[in-house]
## 1
Amino acid sequence: MQYITDVLLHSQSGIEVSLTTSPDEFIQYGGAKINYSQSSLTDDELRVMPSPLLFENNIVPQNILCKEQGNYKVLFPTETGDLHFDIFAASFYLLSRYEEYLPHQPDEYGRFAHTESIAYKEGFLQQPIINYWLFDFQKILQAKFPFLVFAIKKFRFIPTYDIDIAFSYLHKGITRNAGGLVRSLLKGELAAIKDRMDVLTKKKEDPFDVYEWLYALHLKFSLQPYYFFLVAGAAGEYDKNVDPHHAEMQELIRYHAIGYNVGVHPSWQSGDDIALLDEEINTLEDIINRKVVHSRQHYIRFTLPGTYRQLIAHGILNEFSMGYGTINGFRASIASPFYWYDLSAETKTPLLVYPFCFMDANAFYEQKLTPSQAFTEIQYYHDVIKKIDGTMISIWHNNFFGNDPLFKGWKEVYEVFLDEVVYWDL
């Protein structure tokens, strides 16, 4: 109860809140009062009928009712009360990711599948529904208590980049390039062979080297991006990064660390061997010469509470994996950063979660969108989040912006989005 009131009323609304279980103290209080109980106590209260959830201390399957109310759906509907649903229990259930602790069928990568979520099943995965609830809750509170003043919020756009493979051909060594040439030869990909040789002989730029172009965009639109570098010590089936000990790779990372936020992109392998997480964080810290406090999981591979506990233990303060690696939308049903609640330990943690709503790889590989369709989707998320003064976080990969024919048009999608949409927010 303390956690969810802190999120909704303090962090998101900017008002101080204190809890009491004393009816006398509640009745005598002269300020704004929210009665979260089965019985009415005074005439000057806003009443929210409680569900059992926040009074429990174990994790059990919940009988979640979902009901249409106005322009959106609500969870834990009630017959009485000023809201006709328990906004505290509903928000806590979604933010804590309660359903991810319950038995479920994981996807092919062992992750919590979006098809298992109530947001997907009830059709509100593409809505920051907690922000909607809170917006209307604030209006009801202010109508009841006109003296209440809420914090002024402003829309924020935070671009983030996962640098899984910093260069397509450069700085990969003789063995990996020779292997690539052989594979292309066996497949009859003569254009790919020529492309690789032209890059290696410096006749043309590496197709994944788009860093100066991105720098110019950030400067033009006054953006403060986050870069997450995959620095696995050894290549693997899902980890194909350039060796982090290569001088050119380290120079690239240091270049971005000068003016931007740089974080670790824990490898797939680190999900099976925790010692590798420690090694990768140390590697990145040695390169940038400062503490690493930002993180996003490679392939959005994480499980709760284990992964987040490990990140906290390694000093991570800001986590950017809250979203799905299979579909775009709002995994935690919110478009605002929030502190993670460790449900198993029943405690609020210092880990600030930054939920993303759009990833280029989801749009391309999973949703099979064309560049034009992807532009429409990202514009939708922008418009939705701006209306509720939320924080829009997108994920991009450098290879989508290069000259690989497979990703033709994606560079233009990003440019047009920034020029036609984000520009007007400045």
## 2
Amino acid sequence: MKNFKTEIKWAIIFALIGLLWMFFEKAMGWHGENIADHPKYTMLFMIPAILVYVLALRDKKKNLGGQMTWKQGFISGLVIGGIVALLTPLTTYITHAFITPDYFENAIAYGVETGKATEEEGKAFFNLTSYIIQGVIWAIGAGAITGAIVSLFVRSK
């Protein structure tokens, strides 16, 4: 555990920033009256997400005495993604129980109104279990990809 202290810290920071982003999305109306804008604007979260990985891997490099290989950075990114994946059920529950409890209902209604989904299809996709599964998979995959790319820039030459 001591070897992964930095990764644990940054995974928790990532999760907290993710929750703050959900407050932001809700405030922008992307979970309600402006839900049509949600798919394109939610992708803006990649900016703070990548920034967290850059800061995390720079911190890891500093903790390794200023020397870090690509492999060490990549493994660190994988670990951060794995811990974020473990936190995903909790953060997803907090998001949909407290921050934006009407999101699933609004998303289903929007899908039905626009003809993008039937009510049954909407209910199958827009629910807590589905979002937890998607979030866990996304955290692992995005963590691996982001860690691999950021490590190219943060590694020691």
## 3
Amino acid sequence: MLTTLSALLGVVRLVMPVTAGPQGEPPGVARQLTFLREELDDGAGGEAQELFPEGYFFLHALYGLSWVELGMRAPAGKRSTALREARWALERLDSPDGRAPFSPDLSPPYGVFHRGWSNWLRGGVLSLQAAGDRDAAEVRRFARDSAELGAAFDASPSPYLEAYPEQAWPVDSTVAIASLRLHDRLLPDRFNGTVRKWLENVRQRLDPRTGLLPHRAAPETGEPLEVARGSSLSLTLRFLIDIDPEFAGEQYLRFRERYVTSPLGLAPTVREYPEGMDGPADVDSGPLPLGVSAPASVVTIGSAQVYGDTSLAAALASVSELVGAPVDTPWTKRYAFGLLPIGDAFLAWSKTARPWVSKAPDPPQATVSGWWRVPLLSLLALLGAAPWLPALVRWHRRRPTRTSSVAPASAAPSRPDDASRLGDSD
């Protein structure tokens, strides 16, 4: 019975809508954030830090950014909760715990990862406020940090600044450049030249195998050191659209062609390495069954949504509902029984995705058929029916055998002849 109920629940999760596009509020995200705040208050940031180097920072950053996304969907007079929570998260990024993994000796101080994500969230906080209502100290800090970022990019021969000493990942610089574009939307233009130079340098240093931004690059020159990978590309594309929508659209289509796959024909997922290539798993990719990266698949929900690829975003989100086994209450929602809050944070942030700076592009041609659920639904149907098969077999064997209703020829009554019948009529 439990197996059957689980299969039925899986069917419901697979067919219920879990995304709402860039305007509506995705179902369950507010309850996810309630759960995440409880976990953060109980020390989840420190626990995440033990899993990977940016765990504390990422968990708070994604929590704050998801609140900004929800606040953008609310009327101007109903953003106080989003503003309060985003500011709370931003304070944690600036704390000693938030800066601990990063070096103050880099340019800008604490490196492009810390500065880029912090600047993006700081700009998000300002975006929730009308221009005349913005806190003057927050505006000054945003302008100052943006200026330091811009100066670091202008002085660098590489488009990719260091996140750690002598280590650079293009995705981190993409976030930082997007924050400069956000600056120029909120405040007077200042970084158009910096952004143009960055884009020119990036186009000259794409991964030669895929034509996409590489996973890792040489900080001195920006030359690719590692093939483009799904875990970083899914993040890169989320921000690239706010830098140059046309270039971003080209990159997104390449990514979708080379990395989105349906292993065993079951459901859309995202590979860590391009089709035809395998590689080792690491802390960024997570385990790679059949070459598929769960973090890349989750983050691609948001990337697909900002490019208007709603069929892919909805399919990936539905798969996350099935595989993630969420636990719902009237107040909270958590995935995987709440054992890995960073996964909840990425899901909440991905399902609330929208462009912050650029206008959403025309949607690309859909590649996910409306029939993609059929193989998974068939498997769930078999799983639900399996516990009942032995009972059905026993019932079939116990059924009484149906006997013939035709009497033997020797016992059949003789047919009266015509004379007898005529005599009877007399």
## 4
Amino acid sequence: MIPGAVSLNVNRQTHVLEVPGDASLMAVLRNDLRLNSPKYGCGLGECGACTVLVDGVAARSCVIPVAGVAGREITTLEGLCEGDELHPVQQAFIDEQAAQCGYCLDGMIMMAAALLARNVDPSVEDVRRELSGNLCRCGTHLEIVSAVMAAARRMKADAAGAVR
């Protein structure tokens, strides 16, 4: 590996990058890896627009130094799908028409995916609590919660079918 380089595992691919270790993960994902899903919102980790998964846990990429996630598994919205098949949360957001302006969309999907990985049968209150830290400018909260619940039903049904 190049001295001073950082090795990142992003969306099941390893990248060795010469970037400052204190650069934000979001900046590296967007500028160096050309992944557009983590959005710059507040730059303080408050709005959720930059949410990615780090080892399966939702994390605000705008406040994480890239050196802090070297060697860990990072998943962006682009990496949620399996080939051409969308993740159930992505499909549910489309089916439920849960998008409007798009500011919060990627972060909401990543938060929902993290929740459903831990709890395939959440209550509406669980979903609201999980998504409460993600800001939505246009007020599609009802559609977003509906989409997450639809994804949960699909994932639960898929899991039940796999068990049989």
